[in-house]
Design a protein that fits this description.
The chain is an alpha+beta fold. The chain is about 40% helix and about 10% strand. It has seven helices and eight strands; from the N terminus they run ααβαββαβααββαββ. Strands 2, 4, 5, 6, 7 and 8 form a six-stranded mixed sheet that branches. Strand 7 (about 265-270) and strand 8 form a beta hairpin. The protein is globular, with a radius of gyration of 41 Å.
Length: about 300
């Protein structure tokens, strides 16, 4: 009996050993190639996700910088223009004015009223230096026109810009002196001096004194000469009208080249003087300043 029990116990123990062995068997590991592929796939996915995150971050950064630049650049340009302004109630306050050469460095200056070659025949009062001053708004609008024309091979040449009321008063005094006709043959040969007020060639107030009117022409960089406009600056007569029919086709095209560039940048053309342009959106529409034409007048 004992022998049977021992045999049964041995069988039972063997079964338990086999059962435990079966339960302890581990699944076969993945082959090395499958494991490598899986690891590589996981690495690629991780790298791809990292790369995507970096790219997104970089793009976001670039967009942020671009947006910042788009916001800051105009603001900076606006700062240049708006900055400190002149007091419209103070005719000697040049705070809102600049020297044109500071804004358009390659502009050519021939400030006629600083010289004696003008319709008066003397240096005009108020012109202390041969410089061109304008309100900031007019100067930057002029820069746009200069940039446009430079691409076509031209530079701007300025005869007059800001003109103090002191100078305008000098014009009036000269016009009222009918005996002074020293420069008649050069500037008004067809007219009697007595009609200069009636025809509007001389006025008691000028848009130039508001700092937004400029007299200018084109300079051809290829020829090294002024462009032929079919008439000279400050000539009192119909010849100076931009659409005067007596000029040649090429002279008319030259006038229109200048006019199109200026009117395309915010200026209005004068109907009687091909060289005269006034900024439409004037910052000081009711003020006739009288500080001297001099760099010392500016307040930077």
């Amino acid at each position: 009996m004992k022998t049977v029990i021992k045999a049964a116990a041995a069988v039972l123990m063997a079964s338990l050993v086999l059962l435990l062995a079966a339960c302890s068997v581990k699944p076969a590991p993945e082959s090395s190639s499958d494991q490598t592929t899986s690891s590589a796939g996981s690495a690629e996915q991780t790298a791809s996700e990292t790369s995507a995150d970096q790219t997104a971050a970089e793009l976001k950064a670039e967009v942020s910088v671009a947006s910042q630049n788009e916001t800051e650049a105009p603001a900076e340009a606006q700062k240049e223009i708006s900055g400190e302004r002149s007091d419209p109630g103070d005719i000697y306050d040049a705070t809102g004015f600049v020297s044109v050469t500071d804004v358009v460095p390659d502009v050519i200056l021939e400030i006629r009223y600083y010289s004696t070659y003008n319709f008066i025949g003397d240096r005009v009062r108020g012109y202390e230096e041969p410089v061109a001053l304008l309100s900031k708004e007019a100067a930057y609008a002029l820069k746009n026109a200069a940039d446009t024309l430079r691409e076509k091979g031209y530079r701007l040449k300025i005869f007059d810009a800001y003109r103090p009321q002191t100078a305008v008063d000098h014009f009036v005094e000269w016009a009222e002196d009918l005996d002074d006709v020293r420069m008649k043959q050069y500037f008004y040969p067809e007219l009697d001096k007595s009609v200069l007020f009636d025809y509007g060639y001389i006025a008691r107030y000028s848009g130039h004194s508001r700092g937004c009117t400029v007299d200018l022409t084109l300079f051809d960089m290829d020829t090294g000469e002024e462009v032929d406009m079919g008439g000279s600056f400050d000539y009192f007569g119909e010849l100076s009208h931009p659409d005067y029919p007596g000029v040649t086709e090429q002279q008319y095209k030259n006038r229109m080249l200048l006019q199109d560039a200026m009117t395309g940048c915010g200026f209005r053309a004068c109907q009687t003087e091909w060289w005269d342009f006034k900024l439409i959106d004037e910052p000081y529409p009711d003020t006739y300043f009288s500080f001297p034409v001099s760099l010392d007048s500016l307040k930077y």
